[in-house]
Write a structure and sequence with these properties.
Blueprint lengths: L5 E4 L4 H11 L4 E4 L16 H13 L5 E11 L20 H12 L6 E12 L2 E14 L15 E3 L6 H12 L1 H17 L3
Parallel strand pairs: 1-2, 1-3
Antiparallel strand pairs: 3-4, 4-5, 5-6
The structure holds inosine 5'-triphosphate.
């Protein structure tokens, strides 16, 4: 019987886990740190996505055996000089509060004609407490003036990817997963694992 290799996600964000699990299908057994209550909370003290992804990947990899994958991601808005950026999850003042984050973004963008923005995702793959490789993915788009759509998480209701007229929250997970920052980074992770590490 074929047992799929295990990949542990260094995240407590259930939406990230669901997206990554859906994109990997049955190629991997995907768990996240909520399955390991003994794992410490990792403070994200870095100033870049890469630094924070490293902190999460290495911090968890020192505690658990096997492949560990961290995802640090966020929204960069040109008219806000790249904010919310690495501060995306607490832009509204409260960690992980998507409603406040979106409200804060709408207020900051109220008088801005320039709406260009992008989601960026950096992933770090670690094993035995050491970084094995890092990867990134970007999706360009624009910020709209009022939230639209029910799917996804975070800033999805305010972001329209280039080439579309609907937000990520309207397009839904299946479409989002074909073009998102996360899917583009994950495609590189899959290549790396397939070519370098795992038995074919
Ligand atoms: P972990 O650190 O536990 O992985 P987190 O949600 O705190 O979970 P980040 O520090 O990477 O993760 O912050 C990501 C934030 O960026 C997230 O809370 C959203 O506000 C935003 N974000 C990232 N990817 C997104 C996506 O695909 N759609 C919408 N918003 C996204």
């Amino acid at each position: 019987m074929h047992v799929p290799p295990r990949l542990i996600l260094a995240t407590r964000n259930a939406h990230k886990t669901a997206e990554i699990r859906a994109m990997l299908g049955d190629r991997y057994e995907v768990l996240d740190v909520t399955a390991f209550p003994e794992c410490p909370h990792i403070e994200e003290t870095g100033t870049t996505f890469l630094e924070n992804a490293r902190l999460k990947a290495l911090g968890i990899s020192r505690q658990l055996d096997g492949w560990v994958l961290a995802d640090d991601s966020g929204l960069e808005v040109d008219a806000l000089d790249g904010a919310p950026g690495v501060g995306s999850s607490s832009y509204g003042g409260e960690e992980g509060n998507n409603v406040l984050n979106n409200l804060c973004l709408l207020v900051e963008m109220a008088d801005k004609a320039e709406r260009r923005a992008r989601f960026r995702c950096t992933m770090v793959l670690a094993r035995d407490g050491r970084e094995q490789a890092n990867f990134s993915g970007v999706v360009e788009g624009r910020i709209i003036h009022a939230p639209r759509g029910e799917h996804g998480f975070g800033y999805d209701p305010l972001f329209i990817p280039d080439g579309y007229e609907k937000t990520f929250a309207e397009l839904g997970e299946e479409v989002k997963n074909t073009l998102s920052h996360r899917s583009r980074a994950l495609a590189k992770v899959i290549d790396f694992l397939t070519n370098n590490c795992l038995p074919k």
